[in-house]
Amino acid sequence: MISYLRDILPKYKDQNLLKPFRSIPRRFLISKFVVQFGIGLASSLVLSLTFNSNVVATPESGHVLSPLISQVNQANPPKNSSIRLLETVGLFVGGIVFCIALDRWFSDRSAQLGNTPLAQQARRLKQLKIGYPEGMTNFEVLRSQALLEERLRPFGLIVTWTSFLSASALIEALSNGTIDFCGGGGTASIFSQAADHVFVRVAKEKYTAPKGQAILVPEDSPIQTIADLKGKKIAFDKGSSAHYILIKALRKVGLDFSDIDPIYLTQPQALSLFRQGEVDAWVVWVPYTLTQARSSYPGRSIADLGSIFGDRASLEVPTYYYAIPELVRDYPDLLKVILEEVNEAGAWAKKQELEATQRLLDQHEIDPFILETLQKRSAERAIIPIDEQSLDALQHQANLFRDLDLIPERVNVKDGTYSLQTKQNWTY
């Protein structure tokens, strides 16, 4: 056997036999060796005990049958040598069989772990950079519970997180390669597309919180309704969903955009002026998850998504998920995992919201319709693929902004370069 191995090994000298094992994680190789060694040792002990019991039984049976046979056995050592030779051969063959079986099993496992498209894509990307607006529920859950990190850790992929002030800043970061994946308002993507930024819409949240955005006025302001905003200074982030919400709110009461004095400010800038009384109203995104900074927003609400859009809020003011084109084109299995985990985070958040509402119901009077709505949504997907209805609503926004000369030219949101329409079921 040794001479045979000595003869065949040179044939494979230049075939890089260790190459397949380099893609297998070190911990996996160590566990393979430990398991193989342990099972091989156990099998050797079992076989050794089996042979020893046979050897012991032979002289006992011989002694019972005839003293002469016992004497012959004692005087015939070659027979004992033959038994020991068979024992050695048996152990050797048994060890080989176990090694072959274990190697096959571990090879299958390593193939599943290291040679799947997901594993290959994860190793090729090496680092996944995610951007998020502070307070966005699905991302807050995804990040705090490390769902993506846990699922992608076996492939050595590193996940990093960066917060941004607005959806427009997020999409711009996608375009310049600072991040690979993000989420934010759909309106910002219209302005970004008009500015020739590079990005792809890949999914959207199924439901928008009815109080997720609001028009605030100071506590002591005489403004009570949207109609009272005529001629007032209103702060909001240009090109954000707040921009669209304000336009639709004004039109609902018969006012035009030209009837107000728009003050284009980012949220931190607007917050400062709002507190100082420098603006009369502020259209602001109130995150689903209240952070310490945003829970201290001053003022009172005179309108929110529910009062402005009714049951069309999720369609009119959607939250989208965006990716760089390379992630969509070259890393489809990885993108699928990202969307699955975002959906898992959203489902968990819905469940927590439902449980909190049920506890509140036991203590206070709550409209049963609210609980019924939450129960329905908790059983549904948190995010969905982009469909025609979603894009039709977004196109309506784009046309509105062009008619108001807020973007330089008309854009087609259904352009496949910017919107991924897929029937792939990437949710659990």
Question: Please, could you describe this protein's structure?
Answer:
It is found in: Periplasm. InterPro entries: ABC_SsuA_sub-bd (IPR010067), Solute-binding_3/MltF_N (IPR001638), SsuA/THI5 (IPR015168). This is Putative aliphatic sulfonates-binding protein. Pfam families: NMT1 (PF09084). The chain has 428 residues and is α/β, with parallel strands linked by helices. Among the domains are: 168 residues, D-Maltodextrin-Binding Protein, domain 2 (3-Layer(aba) Sandwich); 104 residues, 3-Layer(aba) Sandwich (D-Maltodextrin-Binding Protein, domain 2). The protein is 55% helix and 13% strand. It has a 6-stranded mixed β-sheet. A 5-stranded mixed β-sheet has the order 7-6-8-5-9, sandwiched between helices. Helix 11 links the parallel strand 6 and strand 7. The N terminus is likely disordered.
Layout of strands and helices, then pairs:
Layout: H1 2-8, H2 19-22, H3 26-65, H4 67-74, H5 77-114, H6 117-125, E1 127-133, H7 137-144, H8 147-152, E2 158-164, H9 167-175, E3 181-185, H10 186-194, E4 200-205, E5 213-217, E6 233-236, H11 241-252, E7 261-264, H12 267-276, E8 281-285, E9 300-304, H13 305-309, H14 313-316, E10 319-323, H15 325-330, H16 332-363, H17 368-378, E11 383-384, H18 388-403
Helix pairs in contact: 3-4, 3-5, 7-16, 9-10, 16-17
CATH-defined topology of the domain at 117-208 and 318-349 and 361-404: D-Maltodextrin-Binding Protein, domain 2
Taken as a percent bin, the fraction of beta residues is 5-15%
Question: In CATH terms, what is the architecture of the domain at 117-208 and 318-349 and 361-404?
Answer: 3-Layer(aba) Sandwich
Order of helices and strands: HHHHHHEHHEHEHEEEHEHEEHHEHHHEH
Output the number of helix runs.
18
Q: Say how many strands there are.
A: 11
What characteristic shape results from the CA principal axes? elongated
Most strands sheet:
6 strands, mixed
The radius of gyration computed from the alpha-carbon positions, rounded to a whole number of angstroms, is 34 Å
CATH superfamily assignment of the domain at 117-208 and 318-349 and 361-404? Periplasmic binding protein-like II
Structural class: alpha/beta
What level of helicity do the residues show?
A: 40-55%
Kindly report the average pLDDT value.
78
Which residues form runs of ≥5 with pLDDT under 50? Answer: 1-29, 54-73
- The first-level CATH class of the domain at 117-208 and 318-349 and 361-404 is given as Alpha Beta
Organism: Planktothrix agardhii (strain NIVA-CYA 126/8)
Family: Belongs to the bacterial solute-binding protein SsuA/TauA family.
Function: Part of a binding-protein-dependent transport system for aliphatic sulfonates. Putative binding protein.
Protein name: Putative aliphatic sulfonates-binding protein
